[in-house]
Design brief:
The complex is a heterodimer of chains A (289) and B (210).
Chain A lengths: L11 H5 L1 H21 L2 H4 L21 H24 L5 H27 L10 H16 L12 H23 L6 H26 L39 E5 L9 E5 L17
Antiparallel strand pairs in A: 1-2
Helix pairs in contact in A: 4-5, 4-6, 4-7, 5-8, 7-8
Chain B lengths: L7 E2 L2 E2 L6 H17 L18 H27 L8 H20 L9 H7 L8 H23 L5 H24 L6 H5 L14
Antiparallel strand pairs in B: 1-2
Helix pairs in contact in B: 2-3, 2-4, 2-5, 3-6, 5-6
Classes of the chains: A mainly alpha (289), B mainly alpha (210).
Chain lengths: 289, 210
């Protein structure tokens, strides 16, 4: 074990004199200049490497242009369609909830067709399938909390219909937020107009789900807008949904609390967010065969 | 695909580990280009949209500000008539959200902000709000919000600056949600067309005096 020998330290005063500071600074600058002069430009900025790890291959450069954003939008629409197909397959939705889901699926297919067409117009190739990244990392863990997974020790939800509506609300809100965010990312104002119309329809889906789930008039307006606080422990710890959650459209993540209560009295909580760089559908990516 | 120094990929010049020599060389080229008034490369990167509102944007944003202030006053008219009663929060929320929207546009416009409603539009739409009947006001509010959403979408298609487009988009999204609430409030909760469709026509900006 390395030991620390205080006797080898220079006297404190010596390290703090003006001359000592200048000398130390001068050494640093000189050493820096020496390294810069000796090293090639290619290697100077690379960090030092220790051991026999393979050389890191830099990721290919990618552009996030209008076509990439529109391809990602199409993939989101197909992701929503797959989520609703999974929800319908559980067979617990009926009545008004089932009618809403059928309407949403039709709207998402129409939106997907529009964004695919806009992709072509922007010079890209439409991406007409679900976003695998989101399906695997975002959707699958949520659906697992509803159906349960015995091998992982996850019990089935204690209220499947409630949880499906919570997922629907989150996805519709985030779909709208994604289009809202794209308004400042797209370079063509005409494209911005086309996609914000779609986004406006997505958040109307979310508003309808909130009213269906929370009830009217309770589900119309968030108490936060009236200056009231929301008790996180109320309603069994499951946040209520509101058709009008704020004064402006938000691009912030939406929290989803679903599944059966665990021993600690809490439920599975996830944060659904707008797609980041790793969820974009870049040029060259194609639907699985 | 591997990044190669100086290689042009889709209009973007990729430069790895810029050395002092390269920086100096780039500076010289840039200076020469600036002096000659020509671009250094024929395949220049696509032009990014401006952030701040352009002169043309200012007129559009002033129109949007007036629309928001008009909507605020229309809901206030209905509230004064007693339509909100002592418990309905939707009309008050609509009024306050339109005030907040106007405030955000005013902040964006600065000294170009108007701060006044469009009297002609107010007069044109006030009939539906001059009543204490809540479902009737909800119907008038639904028409107003639908028109506002269509108008804002149209503005987004015209705005050049991203600051203005972003602000209008945030306003539009909450007004779209308000459409669904106002449809439900007038008893159309089972009518999908009323809940989700917007057939309204965008209002057209007129010359704004200020």
């Amino acid at each position: 074990m390395a030991s620390f020998d205080a006797r080898r330290l220079p006297p404190p005063r010596a390290a703090l004199t003006r001359r000592g500071l200048l000398r130390t600074g001068g050494m640093t600058v000189t050493f820096g200049a020496l390294v810069a002069a000796c090293g090639s430009g290619e290697e100077a900025a690379a960090p030092g490497r220790v051991g026999n790890a393979p050389v890191i291959t830099p990721p290919p450069p990618v552009d996030v242009d209008d076509a990439v954003l529109l391809r990602t939008a199409t993939s989101l629409e197909y992701t929503a369609i797959e989520v609703y197909a999974s929800a319908a397959a559980l067979g617990v939705l009926d009545g008004r909830a089932l009618e809403l889901v059928e309407r949403f699926v039709a709207d998402h297919q129409r939106h997907a067709d529009i964004t695919a067409e806009l992709t072509s117009q922007a010079g890209g190739e439409p991406y007409e399938c679900a976003n695998r990244w989101l399906m695997e990392r975002g959707v699958a863990p949520l659906l697992e909390q509803i159906a349960g997974n015995e091998a992982e020790g996850i019990p089935p939800s204690d209220d499947v219909a409630r949880d499906l509506l919570a997922i629907s609300y989150a996805f519709e809100s985030i779909a709208g937020a994604t289009y809202q965010k794209m308004v400042e990312q797209l370079t063509d104002p005409q494209l911005r107009q086309q996609i914000i119309i779609i986004g406006a329809e997505e958040v109307r889906h979310a508003a309808a789900v909130a009213i269906a789930r929370t009830g009217a008039p309770e589900g119309y307006v968030s108490p936060v807008l009236r200056g009231e606080e929301i008790d996180p422990a109320a309603n069994d710890g499951i946040p209520l949904m509101y058709a009008i959650p704020g004064q402006f459209g938000s691009v912030a993540p939406v929290e989803v609390v679903i599944g059966a209560e665990n021993d600690a009295g809490t439920r599975f909580t996830a944060s659904v967010q707008t797609p980041a760089d790793n969820a974009y559908i870049y040029e060259g990516m194609s639907c699985p065969a | 695909m591997t990044a190669t120094s100086g290689k042009i990929v889709k209009g973007h010049r990729l430069v790895e580990n810029p050395s002092r020599r390269r920086v100096l060389a780039a500076g010289t080229l840039g200076a020469a280009s600036a002096l000659s008034g020509r671009r250094a490369s024929a395949s220049a990167p696509p032009t990014s949209p401006p952030a701040r509102p352009t002169d043309a944007d200012v007129e559009l944003l002033r129109f949007a500000e007036q629309l928001e202030l008009t909507a605020r006053d229309l809901y206030q008219l209905a509230i004064d008539e007693g339509a909100a009663g002592d418990r309905d929060l939707v009309l008050q929320t609509c009024r306050e959200n339109h005030q907040a929207a106007a405030d955000s546009l005013s902040a964006l416009l600065g000294t170009d902000a108007i701060g006044e409603r469009d009297d002609a539009l107010f007069e044109e739409m006030s009939g539906g709000f001059t009543t204490s009947d809540l479902p009737a006001v909800a119907e008038a509010g639904y028409a107003l919000e639908s028109a506002a959403v269509a108008t804002h979408a149209s503005l987004i298609g015209q705005l050049e600056g991203t600051d203005g487009a972003r602000t209008i988009a945030a306003i539009l999204m909450i007004e779209s949600r308000m459409c669904t609430v106002l449809a439900d409030l007038q008893g159309l909760g089972d009518n999908d067309a009323a809940l989700f469709d917007n057939g309204a026509v965008a209002l057209q900006p007129t010359t704004v005096e200020g």
